[in-house]
Amino acid sequence: MALEDGPVVAVDCNGADLGPSEVAAGAALAAAQGARVVLFGPARELGTPPPGVQVVDAPVSIAKAPDPVRAVRSTPEASIVQAATAVAAGEAQALVCAGSTGSALAAGILNVKRASGIFRPALALPLPVPSHPVTLLDVGANADARREHLVQFAFMGAALAQAVLGVARPRVALLSNGNEPDRGSALVLETHAELAERIPGSDFFEFVGNVEGVDLVSGAADVIVTDGFTGNIALKVMEGVSQATLSAIRSAAATSPVAQAGGLLLRPALRGFREEIDPERQGGAYLLGLRRLGIVAHGRFTRQGFAQAILRARLGATEDLVGRTHAALEQAGALKVSPASVARATVAGR
Amino acid sequence: MALEDGPVVAVDCNGADLGPSEVAAGAALAAAQGARVVLFGPARELGTPPPGVQVVDAPVSIAKAPDPVRAVRSTPEASIVQAATAVAAGEAQALVCAGSTGSALAAGILNVKRASGIFRPALALPLPVPSHPVTLLDVGANADARREHLVQFAFMGAALAQAVLGVARPRVALLSNGNEPDRGSALVLETHAELAERIPGSDFFEFVGNVEGVDLVSGAADVIVTDGFTGNIALKVMEGVSQATLSAIRSAAATSPVAQAGGLLLRPALRGFREEIDPERQGGAYLLGLRRLGIVAHGRFTRQGFAQAILRARLGATEDLVGRTHAALEQAGALKVSPASVARATVAGR
Questions:
Q1: Which of A30, A39, A195, B332 could form a disulfide with A307 if both were Cys (CB 3.0 to 4.6 A apart)?
Q2: Which chain B residue is nearest to residue A269, measuring alpha carbons?
């Protein structure tokens, strides 16, 4: 397909709980809205592709591989590796993976590769919080982080919010154990100082300082930055607590006929809430910091979620998310400096 | 009061949202169950003490002080400082504070002082999770932690679970971004190795490895150990998400007469759930690692919560929580070694 017809999204169909055919059905929905897609998966399960969709037969899956990095390195025929390689070669402009975060991360880093000047990629997740959408990153690409990584995450998350999520000037915050600027781990204190000094007056995003765990649902920020260890824990606590609360209410509603009647009467009113917290609406987790945008849809998604992931990936390519991120980091002087230029600067007495 | 009549609990009455009289009412409830209490607060607001309760007039409060450490140092007449000093002097065997975590921490560390061989105190919170109680520590005493701190936290939390919370052989876990032993921050990986090697065969607690954020509500462990930065964030996410979920359901139940009727019918069935997640049942957060047990009740508590805090503090003293912790740490070789003995060991070629 020619690029002048708009970006092409490469999609790995292996790894979805409902099977590769559900991902293909999602691609068909996205294609009906004008998306152009190349599917990598078992051709015999993907059916006849509609206009706008191509199929590359790639039946080998590494979605369940225990060591994704080794699997990506040793399995060039795997669907995710072929999809990532197509993106790296410029045959597609964005990557969508239908299941395993581990293999998507590994294929992204090893095949698509980091964008120039980026220290570390990050996984950003727009949280399905009713009336207060907020994007949390990193939710688990790197367990440990340094100050310069978190500073870049702030720019990467802000660019995503601007280019793909429709927030004109995102409010960016650091996740901490207190709102005050002097509260936090050593890492947060350093990063806070850097963002507070570097950013004022920037029209790229507004740094709103530290936020607490409760601010994942309070609407205090559009983008919340943290290391992948803390971000993963915060996310899993959020998922666990919301599921446990809903299931406790469901059990309570089963304890007596009166309560059952109450639950039935309440159900239609809860539909809007359930829709708002539906993770499929956000398309999945965004793999930022690579040469091209990647999206990791959740393995549990239905075709609607996969269609949304593909449409969001296309939007990221159309809006040049990667280029915007680079330009903003460059302007702020926050790109990774190569060892050679550090040496020159040191010699110059900096 | 004489010690042979059982331990005495020193209680700081300042800082409660409902005022010092509510704390005094809680003390009266606890005294009716045999507790012996000394209240520190404004005597004219505390009423006539019932048998078992003494009052020390201490009207000065530093519960709202912006810099608790400085306030504790410069305000010896403050109620929390007087209460902590009474504990340090052996006039009382446990400390309960009715409000500010910051001033309780500062007075605990500066006046009650760290127990011998303890690196850092920690704040442990039994989480009100229906049918799966779990104690999380540290929830915010120290933003940064080292491996040897987390190892001690494991013992401190296990001792609390045994002595005060009624868990015979607690399952202790490390909070991480994955269940696998090789997942985690550098700090978690080091601590995991230490606990996995040091502890097998111990009958003090069972180390069950890493748990994820969702395991705060899954029942996978009785005690979950983490640094104070991560613990505080996990706790605040938990509070925020459960409140947001309940309030979203409450709003949904207000959208139409039918939904309202459903909410009304469901309400009685939800009473048990609301009671199970009531934080007053746990008495508050436990300040561990000092020469005596401290409990920080929440400022929002009613008299029932303050009574529970006093009864739990008494139990901690009766069951010798501090002595048990020390003995277990000593047996495991996990006590802090003084610089002098390190020097001797080094000279001996260790």
A1: A30
A2: B252
Q: Which residues of chain A have pLDDT under 50?
A: 1-3, 349-350
Q: Decide if B98 touches A, using CB distance below 8 A.
A: no
- Kindly report the CATH number assigned to the domain that includes residue A304: 3.40.718.10
Partners of residue A235 in chain B, C-beta under 8 Å: 213
Closest chain B CA to residue A240: B214
Number of domains in chain B: 1
Domain assignment present for residue B67? The answer is yes
Chain B nearest-CA residue for A143: B185
B259 in contact with A, Cβ within 8 Å:
yes
How many CB atoms are closer than 10 A to CB A85?
Answer: 18
Contact B150, B157 (CB under 8 A): no
Q: In 3D, which of A22, A32, A201, A214 has the Cα closest to residue A134?
A: A214
Shortest Cα–Cα distance, B175 to chain A (Å): 8
B298 inside domain = yes
Tell me, yes or no, if A215 comes closer than 8 A to chain B by beta carbon.
Answer: yes
Query: Is the confidence metric ipTM above 0.85 for this complex?
Result: yes
Q: How far apart are CA A277 and CA A296, in angstroms?
A: 18
pLDDT at A340: 61
Give the pLDDT confidence score for residue A116 in this predicted structure. Answer: 93
The predicted pLDDT at position A349 comes to: 46
Q: Is A2 on the interface with B (CB under 8 A)?
A: no
Tell me the mean pLDDT in the region B24-35. Answer: 96
Whole-number percent of chain B with pLDDT over 90: 73
At residue A14, the pLDDT reads: 94
